[in-house]
Amino acid sequence: MRGQGVGHDMGRRRARARGAGGFGALLCLLLALSSAGWITRDLIVAQHPLDVWWLWAGVPSRPESAAVWATTLLEPVLGIGCLVAAVAVLRRSPSAPCALGAVAGVTLLFRAPPLWNLGADGLPGAGAGARGWALITAGVALVVSVLLLIAASAGRSGAGRREDRLRRAPAAVAALLLAGSALTLAAWQVYSIRELGWSTYWGSVVGDGDAHRALLQPPGNWTLLSLALLSLVSAVGAARGAPSVRPLGLLTAALLLAHGAAALAAEQRAGLISHFRALAPRTQLDVATAAFAALTGLVALLALARPVAGAAAPRGPVGGQLPPGYAPPPPPADLPPNW
Fold this sequence. Notes:
Blueprint: H1 2-45, H2 49-56, H3 74-90, H4 96-111, H5 113-119, H6 128-157, H7 168-196, H8 198-206, H9 220-239, H10 246-269, H11 281-305
C-alpha cells in the first residue's frame, strides 16, 4: 500500500509537470509571436528591409526619416530562444524547465526598462498609440516571465529524469570565454564611470529618452551590464558542469554573438575596420571588443550546443560480451516462480 501511494504521488507530480510544461510552451509561443509582430511592424514601416537591420546594428540608414521604430536585435534573438524552449518542452527534454527559466530571466532583464522609459515619454516623436502598445507588450512580457518561472519550478519538481552533466572540455572552453566576456564588459563599465561621472553614467543605465532609437530598446549600458551579468552566471555554471545553466549559457552566447556581429557590421560600414591601424587606441579597443564578443558568442554557442555526456557505458566489448575471465552475475537468491 505504501508503495502504491508513492507511485500515485509520483504520477500526480509528473502529470502536474506535463501540464506546467504545456502551459510554459504556450507562454513561450506568446512571447515569440509578440516579437514577430513588432518585427513585422518595423518591416512594414521601413522603406527597405535592410533599414531594419541597420537599425538593429545601431546605424539608422535614413536618419532623416520620421518613422518611429520599435524593435532591436533583442527581438529576433529572444523570439528564437522562446521557440527553442517551446520545442524542448514539447519533446519532453530534461532541460525544458531550465530553458523556460532562462527565457523568463532574460525577458525580465530586457523588458523591464521600457516600462519606466516609455511611461516618461522616453522616445521623442512616438505617438501615444505606439507608446501604449509598447508599454502593454513590456508589461505582458513581465507577467509572462513570472508565469514561466512558476512553470519551470513545477517542471523541475516533477521531472522524471535528470539531464547529464556537461562534457568537461567544451564546458571549460565556454566557461573561460564567457568569463572573459563578463570581465571585458565590466571593465568598459568602469571606464564609462570614470569618463562620464557617476550621475551621467547612471542616467545611461536607467535610460535617457534622447538616446533611444526604438520603443522596446533598453538603455545601452543597461544592456551591457545585463550581458556581463548573464555571462558571469553562465561561466560559473559551465565551470561547474551544471546542466541547469546550459540553456542560459546558450541564450547568453547567442546574445553576445548578435551584439558583437551587429557592432562589427556598423564599424565596417563606417570604415573603421579597413582603417584599423589609423584609429585612435580607444576606437581600436571598441572594434576589438566587438570582435571578441562575436567570437566568444560563436565558440561558446558551439561548445554548449554539443550533446551532454551520456550515462557511463558498460566496460567491455560492444554486444554484451564479457571480457575473458569474467563470469555473469549469479541469479538472485529468491527465484521467481517457474524460473
